[in-house]
Amino acid sequence: MEIRIYYEDTDCGGVVYYANYLKYFERARTDFLEQRGLSVAGLLKEGTQFMVVHAEVDYRSPARYGETLVIDTRLADCGKASVTFAHVIRERTSRRLIVEGSAKLVATTLDNKVKRMAPALVGALQAPPRRAMKERKRTRKERHA
């Protein structure tokens, strides 16, 4: 997923304000879910929400106003009631490493009680993105044509 850096994202020196990377991680996790046919709204309707219980951010290089960042998000670990996402942010053109980080989330009820994730949810989280599956099917068809 891509994020364009606007003036509002930066500090007075034109560098992305450090806490904004956590917001970018959140957007990337939402995108990760959507690529697998899940939505935050749908999970809430089913009585499941995720809460961040631990986050780490390692700042490698400053991102600046006007740049476009690419966020790569993957599932690093999946337990019975928790998931850990790993995030890598690079500048789109140069591929310069900007930030690496992770976030551990627990599944809870809407009353904030920790709960086990349903097997279908775990399966969806561990599945490849739907766009990638469509691309693989198309490539396979092209090879057999």
Question: What this model shows, in words?
Answer:
The protein has 145 residues and is of the alpha+beta class. The protein has a single domain (2-144), classed as Thiol Ester Dehydrase, Chain A. Helix content is 30%, strand content 32%. The chain has 4 helices and 5 strands. The protein has a 5-stranded antiparallel sheet.
Number of strands: 5
Structure annotation, total helices? 4
Q: What is the domain total for the residues?
A: 1
CA-CA gap between termini:
32 Å
| Morphology | elongated
User: How do the SSEs run, as a string of H and E?
Assistant: EHHEEEEHH
By CATH, the architecture is named Roll
- Low-pLDDT runs: none
Structural class: alpha+beta
Physical arrangement of strands within the biggest beta sheet: 1-3-4-5-2
Q: Give the amount of beta strand, in percent.
A: 25-35%
Report the CATH C-level class.
Answer: Alpha Beta
What's the name of the CATH homologous superfamily?
Hotdog Thioesterase
Average of per-residue pLDDT values: 93
Helix content: 25-40%
- What is the CA-based Rg, rounded? 17 Å
The CATH topology comes to Thiol Ester Dehydrase, Chain A
Largest sheet: 5 strands, antiparallel
Record keyword descriptors for this entry.
elongated, about 140 residues, Thiol Ester Dehydrase, Chain A, alpha+beta
Give a concise summary.
With about 140 residues, this protein is of the alpha+beta class. Helices cover about 30% and strands about 30% of the residues. The chain has a five-stranded antiparallel sheet.
